[in-house]
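User: For my dataset I need records formatted as: sequence, then structure tokens, nothing else. Please produce one.
Assistant:
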Amino acid sequence: MRNVTLLSASLALALSAGSAAVQEKGQAGFDKLKTLVGEWEGQSEDGVPSRASYQLISGGTALMETYEPGGEPAMVTIYAVDGDRVALTHYCSANNQPRMESPPIEEEPQRLAFAFTGGTNLASADTPHIDSLVLTFEDRDRFTQKWSWKEEGNDHFTTVHFIRKK
């Protein structure tokens, strides 16, 4: 009986350590996202101004982005660690909520790419929706978002360059 108890305890400890190592990898990506906390001003490649703000929520376990693209209604995106990845849910003004995740993270990234994994309030995968997001961290005060909007099987891209408000 004692051997079974020791084996069970050892197995639980090993699984816990493995889970912590996986979580740590995703945390590296989330820690990079946390550098965005604050207020930002942006401009798309076609000259449309945007604003974004980032704040930590839920005891620092999630990051909330509020994005206001040039006169359109504000949208919210929530980012959080999901194992060795970072996941997001985008609450879109198109009245749907695409979910995306990054590939497994190995080290602190200078770029995070998110791909569509599903969503809510989408009648089908053909319903127009945000399909991907790439964040590129240029330096402490500059980053770029590249969004993909999927409609009728075609991707339409919008790139916005942001500068931290001083």
